[in-house]
């Protein structure tokens, strides 16, 4: 999986902090993408359900979800570098 980030070398507390910091950064940089992540990841909604909830198209959700994953991946990868 291209989006897999090996967090095995971090403690559970550090992993939670990394994810929280990455989501905070995403909220600052791209608030709509952050809402999509929250609805999909924490709310368990499908792309169609997210689209209906936010009043946007499902293809927009698809694109923004892909962008959000890429941003989060980059941010967490940079944060883990020594």
Overview of this protein structure:
This protein is mostly helical and 82 residues long. It contains four helices and no strands. The longest helix is centred in the C-terminal third of the chain and has 23 residues, at 58-80. The two termini are 24 Å apart. Residues 1-5 have low confidence and may be disordered.
Q: What integer value in Å does the Rg equal?
A: 13 Å
User: How much strand?
Assistant: under 5%
Structural class, by secondary structure, is mainly alpha
Average predicted local confidence, pLDDT: 85
* Main β-sheet description: none
Measured as a percent range, the helix fraction is over 70%
Order of helices and strands: HHHH
State the helix count: 4
Distance between the termini: 24 Å
The shape is elongated
Uncertain parts = 1-5
Number of strands: 0
Question: How do the helices and strands line up, and which of them pair or pack?
Answer:
Elements: H1 12-29, H2 31-42, H3 47-54, H4 58-80
Helix pairs in contact: 1-2, 1-4, 2-4, 3-4
Structural descriptors:
82 residues; mainly alpha; elongated; disordered N terminus
Write a short abstract of this structure:
The protein is an all-alpha fold. The protein is built from 4 helices and no strands.
């Amino acid at each position: 999986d291209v989006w897999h980030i090996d967090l095995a070398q971090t403690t559970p507390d550090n992993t939670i902090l990394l994810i929280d910091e990455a989501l905070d950064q995403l909220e600052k940089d791209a608030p709509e993408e952050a809402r999509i992540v929250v609805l999909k990841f924490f709310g368990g909604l499908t792309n169609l359900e997210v689209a209906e909830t936010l009043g946007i198209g499902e293809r927009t959700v698809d694109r923004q979800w892909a962008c959000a994953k890429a941003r989060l991946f980059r941010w967490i990868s940079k944060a883990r570098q020594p």
